[in-house]
Each structure stands twice: as structure tokens, then as C-alpha cells.
């Protein structure tokens, strides 16, 4: 009679040493993989932060450029150690009648009835706008619209072809080309590196001295401001002025610096 014998297969498993070796190898591979993955991710995040900072700085500089391009000639001034920029914002301009038939602007006697505009303005000026003739500087008391000797207020009854002034006092200087400019408001840009902000102020009263807190309405231009500097070169009668704007923004270890220069037409 045939005997049946049971066959037992040997069962094998991981030993403790093998398990430790596997864990160590997996840890090494994970660490190496993490290095290869982390670096590109960090680079992408750094690039995104830099792009965001550049976009914020460029947006602020473009806004400043628009205002500087519309500044009254020779009205740009720098204060606060190069961290404040102020200008008188123009809305229109033209040429006054200096002779011939019509209502002539008198520079000798008080002129109560205003003057005719050669051609027409783009629109009737708003009552309360400032009319400036032959502005030569942003300092001193002569030919300076901030001090007011060459600035008069537009009165009611003005039109695109004729302007009435609230004060009949004659202007101190005539313009060689009979030019005048209409100013609606002063505008200031103020850097606050402690708060990390660049702020635009507008709608406040024109003052002879420049202030770091001019009042009026404010609008935040950018955050993350680490440093800024404004410079103004007035130029000569033959060469326009130049405004230089430098903004430095920083966030989470990333720093960008942008320099922007704007040519200014200063012919009064």
C-alpha cells in the first residue's frame, strides 16, 4: 500500500535587516527626488514673485509718467530728500489775444473782462480752474505758479473762446508766444519706505511749500516699496527737462529695481 507523505513548502519573508535596507534605500531615493522636484518649484515661485513685483512697479511708473507729461511747464519739484514729487496738472492750454481786434489780455492795467482765446479750447474751462502764464520755476516768488504771482482763477462765464478771470490783477510777465495753461489741481507722489507704500495725492490746495502729507484724496500706487528716489533736471530753453524715477520693490527675499526717465516739455 502506497504511503502518502505530506509535502511542506518552506515559507520565506523579509528579515529585519532586509526591511531596514529597503527603508534606507527608499529614503535616499525620496530625498534625491525631492531635491530635483523642489528646485524647479522654488525657481517658479521666485520667478512669479519677481514678475509680480515688476508689474506693480511698472504700473506705478506708467501712472506717474502720464501725470508728468501733463504737468505745467516748470512745475515739477522734488522734496522729502528725493522721496516726494509734486506737479501742477494741466487740463488744457492755448494762446491769448495780445493785439488786433477783439478782447486783448492787458498786462499793464487790471483786466476785468478777461481775454479772447486764439482758436478755441477743447472745452469750456471749469470755474475755479487756475490759469497760468509764463511759469519759469517751482521755487521763489517770481514767475512761480505755486506762489501764485502768475496764477489767476477762472471765473463763471468763461467759454472755449473767451476766458473771464476772477481777479483783474495783471500778470507779471507775458509769454513770448502768448501761451497760457489751465491747471485743475496739484498732484503729489510720496514714498513711505517704513510702510512700504507709494501714494498719489490730488485735489488739495496749491501751496508755496511742498509737503509730505499734502492731503486731498489719496490712492495707493504700489506696496512692497523698499526704496525710491526721484530726480528732476530742469534743462534749458533749448533742451527740455528730465524726470528720473527709481523704484525698488522687495518681497520674501526677492528684490527688483526699475529706473524710468521722462522727458518734460518746459517751454512756457
TrEMBL record:
Name of the gene this protein is made from: mshO
InterPro entries: N_methyl_site, Pilin-like
Organism: Syntrophotalea carbinolica (strain DSM 2380 / NBRC 103641 / GraBd1)
Lineage of source species: Bacteria, Pseudomonadati, Thermodesulfobacteriota, Desulfuromonadia, Desulfuromonadales
TM region positions: 12-37
UniProt KW keywords: Membrane, Transmembrane, Transmembrane helix
SUPFAM superfamilies given in the database record: Pili subunits
Name of the protein described by the UniProt record: Type IV pilus minor pilin MshO, putative
Domain of life: Bacteria
